[in-house]
Amino acid sequence: MLFRTTRGNMFFNEASAGEPVMDPSSGEEVEKTVFVVFFSGEQAKAKILRICASFGANCYPVPEEIVKQRQIFREVSSRLSDLEVTLDAGTQHRNKALESVGSQLWRWILMVKKEKAVYDTLNMLNFDVTKKCLVGEGWCPIFAKSQIEDVLQRATLHSNSQVGIIFHEMDTIDSPPTYFRTDKFTNAFQEIVDAYGVGRYEEINPAVYSVITFPFLFAVMFGDWGHGICLLLGALFLILREKKLSSQKLDSFTEMAFGGRYVILLMALFSIYCGLIYNEFFSVPFHIFGKSAYACRENSCSDAYTAGLVKVRDPYPFGVDPSWRGSRSELPFLNSLKMKMSILMGVSQMNLGILLSYFDAKFHKNALDIRYYIFFSRLSFFGCKQIRE
Fold first, then answer.
1. Distance in angstroms between the alpha carbons of the first and the last residue of the chain
2. If you average pLDDT over residues 292-316, what whole number do you get?
3. Residue 93 pLDDT grade (very low, low, confident, very high; cuts 50, 70, 90)
4. CA-CA distance, 185 to 210, in Å (whole number)?
5. Can you give the C-alpha Rg of the chain in angstroms?
6. CA dihedral in degrees (76, 77, 81, 86; nearest 10)?
7. Which of 3, 47, 249, 330 has the maximum number of C-beta atoms within 10 A of its C-beta?
């Protein structure tokens, strides 16, 4: 571009800077190229400067006299050596400061964590001015009462305090918070239910029923014992290595799958069961109990619906007859079967929820919820909807 702009009236030479140079704006090391341009005339100079500015090049004037060039070279070299000495001194000072801090850093972090935990606990306590003590109120399950008392006694002994911690039960009219005891098997199901809402104190916990209904409804919709075996292998892998995986830091997807490993296990088992009912192994039927119970009188009736078929042996003892595969009635029959099973299971689960709401209202002696608000209104509305459908 310089050659065409000046019509060849210039001399250009370039060379690599050698080492990467740090860009002051971005802080990254970039490759630089040094170039020199010899030209004649002020117009050519203006054009060359504009072209260099458009490409973001840094331009430095070079005097024509050799004496001034050598003087500039000495000044730049002196400034460069001074900057290198300053940078080396700053680097050494920084390293010494980091070494002195590094030996004490873990103690500072531990002290900050302890102070943070102490003040976080103090924020949950109230100061009694008359008795000059800290008072804390909270809820705990009945079965954990003895455990809390033991922990408080150990804390008093370890702190060498002259005044012990007093644990006292209080009577209150406030409703206690909801708490459900879970283990590693039921915890994932409880979290799924809690994502939709947490019931009041002493209400029936629907997570108990969801342990079976949730994975079984999944299997009704995605019943295939080939895919179920794949899910089962994945769930067994997570379960057998749960001790090792629980002590590691996992990514978000693996942590989600590991937390729901027992949910995946039940979904896999029910998928295998429903897949055997549908007789589907990766969408391919299997003659598990021998050949089909029906056969054609003639070879021309292979695509018939029911006409022309004769029963030659006992019906399939379990699952769908494989003769439905490939026939004209395959999609209407199998889709109808799966849809009706899904509807029956879904309606049964919703009726179970309405029935549980009745027992909750009866336990809390809330006659309005039973008569008007919850039970009969939902039952009548849902029943009318089923009749209409």
1. 79
2. 64
3. very high
4. 12
5. 40
6. 0
7. 47
- Three-state DSSP at 312 gives coil
- 304 falls in which pLDDT band (50, 70, 90)? very low
Question: Three-class SS of residue 128?
Answer: strand
Q: What is the pLDDT of residue 389?
A: 54
User: Tokens for 130?
Assistant: 């008359």
Spatial separation of the C-alpha atoms in residues 350 and 328, rounded to whole Å: 35
Q: What is the average per-residue pLDDT within 246-262?
A: 88
Conformation bin of residue 203: beta by default, left when phi > 0, alpha when psi is -120 to 50: beta
pLDDT of residue 18: 73
Give the separation between CA 71 and CA 75, rounded to whole angstroms. 6
Query: Taking phi first (over 0 means left), then psi (-120 to 50 degrees means alpha), and beta for anything else, what does residue 160 get?
Result: left
Which residues contact residue 341 at a Cβ distance below 8 angstroms, ignoring those fewer than 6 apart? 220
Q: How far apart are CA 386 and CA 381, in angstroms?
A: 9
Dihedral sign from CA coordinates of 171, 173, 177, 182: positive
Residue type (1 letter), 11: F
Q: How far apart are CA 37 and CA 52, in angstroms?
A: 11
For 169-207, how does the pLDDT look when each residue is reduced to its tens digit (9 = 90+)? 888 888 888 888 888 999 999 999 988 888 888 888 888
pLDDT digits (tens, 9 = 90+) for 59-80: 877 777 788 888 888 888 898 8
Quickly list H helices, the chain: 2-5, 42-54, 66-123, 145-159, 187-196, 207-221, 225-240, 242-246, 252-259, 261-278, 330-363, 367-368, 375-388
Q: What is the pTM of this model?
A: 0.63
pLDDT of residue 261: 92
Phi, psi (degrees; rounded to nearest 5) at 211: -60, -35
Range 274-291 burial, b when 16+ CB lie within 10 A, else e = bbbbbbbbeeebeeebee
Taking alpha carbons only, the member of 320, 283, 313, 278 closest to residue 295 is 313
The partner residues of 284 in beta bridges, in order of sequence, read 281
Q: What are the angstrom distances between the C-alpha of 270 and each of 69, 157, 220, 222, 264?
A: 87, 53, 8, 10, 10
pLDDT at residue 373, rounded to an integer: 62
Grouping H, G, I as helix, E, B as strand and the rest as coil, residue 74 is helix
3-state secondary structure of 277: helix
The letter for the amino acid at 346 is: G
- Coil, strand, or helix at residue 9? coil
Does 6 score more than 80 pLDDT?
Answer: no
